[in-house]
Known about the structure:
There is one protein chain. By secondary structure, the protein is of the alpha+beta class. Helix content is 18%, strand content 32%. It is built from 9 helices and 32 strands. It has a 10-stranded mixed sheet, sandwiched between helices. Strand 20 and strand 21 form a beta hairpin. The two termini are 44 Å apart. Residues 1-10 and 227-242 have low confidence and may be disordered.
Amino acid sequence: METMPYLAIRSAASLIVLERGFVRNYPLDAKNLWRIGRKNPETENDIELESKIVSRKHGYIQNIDGEWYYVESGSLNGTYYNGKKIAMNENSEYEAVKLSNGDILRVDSDNLENPEERGVLLIFTTEGIGNQWKTITLRKAETVFGRNAECDVTIPLSYISARHMVVRKKEAEYFLMDCDSMAGTWVNGQEVHGEVPLKEKDTISICDCTMILTENKIIYNIPVIRKNKSNMSKMSQNSMEENNLQDRPVVLAADIKSKKVKNNQGFGKKELIRDIKVEIREGTLVALIGGTGAGKSTVMNCLNGYETNGIEGNIKYKGVDLIKDFNRMKYLIGNVQQGDAFHEELTVEQELTNAAGMKLPRDTSKKEIADRVNMTLKQLGIENVRKNQIAKCSGGERRRVNIGIELVADRQLLCLDEPDAGLDPGNKKKLYETLRNLAHNEEKSILTIIHDVSEIDLFDQMLVLNKVDNVGRLAFMGTPQEARKYFETDEIKDVYDIMEKNPGKYIFKGDGTNE
């Protein structure tokens, strides 16, 4: 039977420039180096800015080994990176700043509470965001943003409320009010309560939607809803060899130096994990494995933002700091624990309908809920048991219902704790194939703790943890085939024994080598 390859979507980088109320888009992939500075006949800038507070040679953006970086050139007024001014290091040099989707560079006054009228914003974006920036002029006394088609700006995402937020014009000033939405609204990182004034270049956020006020306009983008390109239920096992995994944009990036908790006596600190550096890409299925006490659940609950106390380091989902801004992003993240979360006496359809009613905005209509339930049943391959009482479902079907309780709310990142527990080999394989299909066809990013690695080649990547001196360490992250080379074995199941015999040898540095 012929199989189809993985549907890779190449990331395309753009720089969106906001200056004097105008929006310009620079497709960065056209070349590797872009010089930024004030327009002047004596300079050769690729991105020319009009503002007098921009230096003639202000900085540059460069592509190095597929990653984009910004370098400050020692300009008079400097550059802000995500609200913090870029500073020199101890050697009085400006280090390159790695750019991720949604990062904002800004040239402005020394006090952003009193922004400079001539300030400039430069937004780094990747495909799915970069070409989707739109502009609305605030002509009306009240401009409404929300899920309903009647809104001035329609955001057709399940976690957006029907009437989510309003921007009001009062003479020459603008004010924003959240309409008691489920997911909330943030301005410059602060959640909105009541009505708040807006200043030039204020950033408004709803989960992963971004809006920026510039003069009498708001420029905005929303995540692109891509239509499925395939109806197949199975993908080829060698898909990642046929299409480069690196073409997928990174959506979850973590660099956890350490996580500590109080020890059993209630004083002092016990270190649980150390030096966990991972990147998870959009639309991929990732296995998290490791021996007893290696920190699998700890790492999972750090990456999904549920346990971030005591962390030294950073965790970013779609460019947003989960340690600081988890409440803003939590409606995009689904967390499925080992135990059953359903009511056995209900039918599958009733359980998912109840879950949708609790997890979606209060103003979601019955039809919208029914549509979400129907889609979830189809995605999980359990349409045929929708009317069955859960108590009478098979183990594999019950696992899918558990996943459906989160999926019905259209979570984008799914974190699953041993969803295969207690399943026979056949049902385990079917479950993994379903998860793989969700990742590849529905563009969900899925991280799952597993023990049985017999079907590991259905996973795009493996994250292997190793217990070294009673601390969880990262032993490896990469494809299953790369893991075989790294651990020098043909059988992934042997990795546990290999690490146990020499745990100190397997501490991964992220470049294919160990310490």
